Each structure stands twice: as structure tokens, then as C-alpha cells.
Amino acid sequence: MSLLLGTVVASAADPESVETNEVTVEAGQTLPSSGSVQFSDVGAGHWAKTAIQTAVSKGYVSGYPGGKFKPEQAITRGEFMKMVVTALGLPTEAVEGTWYEPYVKAAQNKSLYAAVDFANNEEQWNKDITRQEMARIAVRAIGQATSEDDKWMYLATKSGLITGLGKGVLGEDKTTTRAQSVTIIERILKVNAGETLPVDKYAVSNAELAWHGRIYLRSCRRFSYPMRASSREELWKNFGMKK
User: Fold this and answer.
1) Binning pLDDT at 50, 70 and 90, where does residue 214 land?
2) How far is CA 152 from CA 136, 202, 242, in A?
3) Which residues contact 35 (CB under 8 A, 6 or more apart)?
4) Is the pLDDT of residue 182 over 60?
5) What is the pLDDT of residue 37?
6) Residues ≥6 apart with Cβ < 8 Å to 14
7) CB 118 within 8 A of CB 124
8) Domain residues of the chain, as ranges?
9) Whether 141 contacts 112, CB under 8 Å
10) What mean pLDDT comes out for the span 140-156?
11) Residue 5 backbone phi and psi in degrees, to 5
């Protein structure tokens, strides 16, 4: 069996399977160095170029026909989970059914996915993954957990796994691109290797506010308190926190 890198064709059964006519790497051989993997749509100045090249060289993601990576293309829940499971080297077992099922099973065994996240069916796994969902998987992948759904983004930003989309904007409901996905996965691997990542303090601040702010709003509704906080500063003041 061989793994092929370069110009690629993804099969309909598995969006991340690889066929090519450029570079062939036999099973058991070392993959090309990250600098040898080039894509026509990932220029020298692309912000995720290093992460993309590294991810492809490690073999947990591939490109598309014509030597393209499509860095800005959205990625589905199933595709992202396969990448994470493969990058972490989690064991998978062949099962009958759709292409993603072995990776979902491996993710469940590692507590990367839980039934409460969303239904385990083809329709749900084929939906584009959001940044909030990506944050939840990333945090679990470094061994952290929380029972508060509003806290995942805070944990992800505080760990340096996720940074803001400019000026600390979290974009929790925005879909995740292929470039963002491999960047997050490379950060997961670095944290698991013992590295401390730099953090976006503005994103951490906004994530903490969103987490505590939702608690505050729920409390106001529960106890019929007047919701007087109309700004970020007022919410911080209500919680007695420092920005």
C-alpha cells in the first residue's frame, strides 16, 4: 500500500482519501518534509502555509486535483474528526457503513465526541463544523473537559488553541476552513507535546465574558432580575472582574 501526495483526487466514499501522479510514498517510508509539499493556492505569504505543509507531510490531510489545497473551503464535522483522530494516531477499526464511522468510534473511545454534542448520523456529520464545535473537540483532545457548554471557547482560547478573527472576535457560529482546521490540529499536537502556546488575550477576554455573561443572563431570567448590563464594561463590572 502506498500514500500518494501532490496532485490529488478525493474519492466520493472518503473525502480525504488520496490519489496522485506526483509523489509516491510507500508504506513504512518517511513522508516528504513540510517544505517539499507545495500547493498553487497556498502562496509564500499565506498565513497558514507552514501548518498546511506540516499537516500534509504528516499524512492526516491531503490536497485536491491541480495541486490545490483549497485553504478557505469549509470542512465538515466528519472530515475534521477524521483529521484529528488520524493526527493523534488513535486506533481505528474497520466497520461497515459510511467512511467516517471508524473515526467517530475512535473519537467516542477517546471522549472527543459525545452523543449530546449532536446526533450521530450522516446528516449531522456532513454539516460544516463551526468554530465553537472545533473548540470543543480541540479542548477534549488536550485532555481538558467541562460540563458547561459555554466554557469550551474560553478553555480553547486560554490554552492558545484558538485565536480571534481579528480584535479578539470569536466567531463561534462561523464555519471552519481547511486552513484553520490544520492550524488548530497542529496546536493540539504542540500542547500534547508539552509546548506552551501564545494566547490572544483579547479572544480570551471575549470568551470569558461570553461564558460568564451567559451565566449572568440566565440568572437574571431565572430570578427575574432586571438585566441592566448593556455593554461589555458593565458586564465586567457586575461580575467584579478586571479586564
Assistant:
1) low
2) 5, 16, 21
3) 53
4) yes
5) 78
6) 99
7) yes
8) 2-58, 72-243
9) yes
10) 96
11) -125, 150
Instruction: Return the beta strands (E) in the chain as ranges.
Output: 2-5, 23-26
**Interval 59-80: pLDDT, tens:** 999 999 999 999 999 999 999 9
Burial 69-82 (b: 16+ CB within 10 A, else e): bebeebbbbbbbbb
d(CA 208, CA 210): 5
The answer, yes or no, to whether residue 123 has pLDDT greater than 50, is yes
Place of cell 488575550: 201
Please report the pLDDT score of residue 11 as a whole number. 39
| Cβ burial, residue 157 (10 Å; 0-12/13-18/19+) | buried
Q: What is the largest CA-CA distance in the chain?
A: 66
* 34, three cell numbers: 513540510
Say if residues 21 and 156 touch (Cβ distance below 8 Å). Answer: no
* Termini Cα distance of the chain: 55
- The DSSP annotation for 188-233 comes to HHHHHTTPPPP--HHHHHHHHHHHHHHHHHHHHHHHT------SHH
